[in-house]
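Deliverable D5.2: sample structural annotation.
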Amino acid sequence: MYKICHVTSAHKSTDVRIFEKECTSLAKNPDYKVYLVAQGDSCTKNNVRVIGAGEMPSSRKERMLEFSRAVAKKALKVNADVYHFHDPELLQFVGAFVKKGKKVIFDSHEDVADSILDKEYMPVPVRIGAKSVYDVVQKTVLKKCSYIITTTPHIVAKLKRYNPNVAMITNYPIIDEEFEKQFDGCEKFAKSLFFAGGIQYQWTHNNIVNAIADLDGVTYELYGSSDDGCLDEIKTLKGWEKVNYHGSVPFAQVQEALHKAGIGMALLKPSHNTGGMLGTIGNTKLFEAMNAGLPVICSDFKLWKKIVEGNNAGICIRYNDEQALKDAIIKLTEDEQLYRQMGENGKRIVREKYNWASQERKLMQVYKKVLGE
């Protein structure tokens, strides 16, 4: 019996990637005893023992220093064979864990170093300095890890400079067959746009609200919370009267609403984390919408175009082109045959390829290598 301990100082114990996908998948193996140390209370679910580390500080500095240290201390008490770290602030503890004979996997959910340059709350000189420091940390620490996991091709290439053992395990959706059955055979042709997630400027909500302002019968079903003033700004736009804002709701409720929606929206701005116009497949929005049978309108990243337009599952446009967005909405809401064809194509490719089961197999392979099985 091997003990495996996932550790996070920044995510909730219910995080979909960490708990629902990785921890739950590993717990299916009868030879693995799986733990998760995270903020909140202790509990046991899906054969995963969650060890609560208490309330996470609101201060980013306190979280990265004091709270991360407390989390690492609790994790070490588990005395696991493998530790799976999920946050950059936990890299400071890799050396100490390795010295104690522990194997460490680092899960880089994004391009941490370059994404620092996108953090607008920091002055530019601070961003550049912080990136330089993190680059040094990566070069020193990642080579000590038994394996590195990340979510998208261009990040894999970068991290291989520090450690040859890098696997791409991305965030494709979990296909819940029992849940999906209730929607099988449902014929829909809705004029509602759908988005669930961070209501932030990077998702160009202002362009979407402007585009639907004078489109008859088109609504924007918006789920999530805002922490950068984006929501307050789009409320002042003319098209806001066509927005149905639902706030933050449980994941299951979001999934049900998604299956009843019309068009999935994923208009993401290029950034360092997307590799400019390369794109990221670490984000779930595209795949969840396609799994629900929705055609999608998304940014024309190279990776996304290959998946979406390559399978005739939606329309890719320049993220900030309001006229192209308006034209795409009109096209999908007026051509029912095209709408249905794209929706079915998206559902098919997710069920065949872009689903968590394909990534679960890769995760298991990584653990077998780390444990020498």
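Annotation notes: The radius of gyration is 21 Å. The longest strand covers residues 2-12.
The annotation will be released with the project's public dataset once the embargo ends.
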